[in-house]
């Protein structure tokens, strides 16, 4: 299993992706975000996850450039993800959206490009565009976000390339067992957004009891639970001390009993939109 914040997992196309990354959802353009990206890279993070709709790709790109300059790392040492937004889902419009994201980020390529939401009737055209970007060598890997089992089955009926990643809401109250089983079977890597349920779980009594037992924070216990389930995790934070704390997951292991206790918290409860019922 993962040894440190730079440990990677091999995706189904042979590319290696870090188990742990920095999420930047709801962080606005500006110096706070630039500094958060730099802090993450300085403290060993190699994966940064953004999206067109976050409207912060410019600051993420600036943070990446400054971090590379300060650390002496190379672009290929980092793993950068962005996502095509719903309004741009379509063959030509997805190709154009990719170029726009690259321009804002100031990068020549992305490591991973995802379809952000499974908009009915649109995601297959967008997927063809992602396949073209991949075949043309413009992106290292392609995947999806917020796809349920039936979305994946539908996409894979016509797809030439199987998604490498499915990034979904995943936390102890939404442990996505059916989806985990399906993605494992098809060698699609599951990735968690909102792993801490946007902070809602940080006062949970059972999680607190387990955290105290290991001498860890609740956040660290949840993120460790992600990793032990084989799920990539990208907690969001702009505070350097929290960025460091979130990555301190590799000096302890949850027992099978404690994994089961956390699993038992599942309520199929979402903090984000339902992928079967969203209107944006």
UniProtKB/TrEMBL annotation:
Sites where the protein binds substrate: 116
GO molecular function: oxidoreductase activity
Domain of life: Bacteria
Cited Pfam families: Aldo_ket_red (PF00248)
CDD domains found in the cross-reference section: AKR_AKR5G1-3
Site positions (Lowers pKa of active site Tyr): 83
Active site per the UniProt annotation: 54
Cited PROSITE patterns: ALDOKETO_REDUCTASE_1, ALDOKETO_REDUCTASE_2, ALDOKETO_REDUCTASE_3
All residue ranges annotated as the NADP-dependent oxidoreductase domain in the record: 32-267
Residue stretches spanning the membrane: none
Entries under SUPFAM superfamilies matching the protein: NAD(P)-linked oxidoreductase (SSF51430)
InterPro entries membership: AKR, AKR5G, Aldo/ket_reductase_CS, NAD(P)_OxRdtase_dom_sf, NADP_OxRdtase_dom
Protein keywords: Oxidoreductase
Classification via PANTHER family: 2,5-DIKETO-D-GLUCONIC ACID REDUCTASE
Family recorded in the similarity comment: Belongs to the aldo/keto reductase family.
Protein name: Aldo/keto reductase
Phylogenetic classification of the source organism: Bacteria, Bacillati, Bacillota, Bacilli, Bacillales
């Amino acid at each position: 299993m993962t040894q440190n914040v730079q440990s990677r997992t091999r995706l189904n196309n042979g590319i290696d992706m870090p188990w742990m990354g920095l999420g930047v959802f709801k962080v606005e353009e500006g110096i706070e975000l630039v500094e958060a990206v730099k802090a993450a890279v300085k403290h060993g993070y190699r994966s940064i996850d953004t999206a067109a709709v976050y409207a912060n790709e410019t600051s993420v790109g600036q943070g990446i450039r400054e971090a590379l300059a300060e650390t002496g790392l190379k672009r290929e040492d980092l793993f950068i993800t962005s996502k095509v937004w719903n309004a741009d889902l379509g063959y030509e419009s997805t190709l154009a959206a990719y170029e726009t994201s690259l321009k804002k980020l100031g990068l020549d390529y992305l490591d991973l490009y995802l379809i952000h939401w499974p908009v009915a009737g649109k995601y297959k055209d967008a997927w063809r565009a992602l396949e073209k970007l991949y075949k043309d060598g413009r992106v290292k890997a392609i995947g999806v976000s917020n796809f349920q089992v039936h979305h994946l089955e539908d996409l894979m009926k016509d797809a030439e390339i199987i998604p490498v990643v499915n990034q979904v809401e995943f936390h102890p109250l939404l442990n996505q067992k059916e989806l985990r089983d399906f993605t494992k079977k098809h060698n699609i890597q599951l990735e968690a957004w909102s792993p801490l349920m946007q902070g809602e779980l940080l006062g949970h009594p059972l999680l607190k009891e387990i955290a105290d037992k290991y001498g860890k924070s609740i956040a660290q216990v949840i993120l460790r639970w992600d990793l032990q389930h084989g799920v990539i995790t990208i907690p969001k934070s702009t505070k350097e001390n929290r960025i460091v704390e979130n990555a301190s997951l590799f000096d302890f292991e949850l027992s099978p009993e404690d994994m089961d206790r956390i699993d038992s918290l599942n309520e199929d409860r979402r903090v984000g939109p339902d992928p079967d019922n969203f209107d944006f």
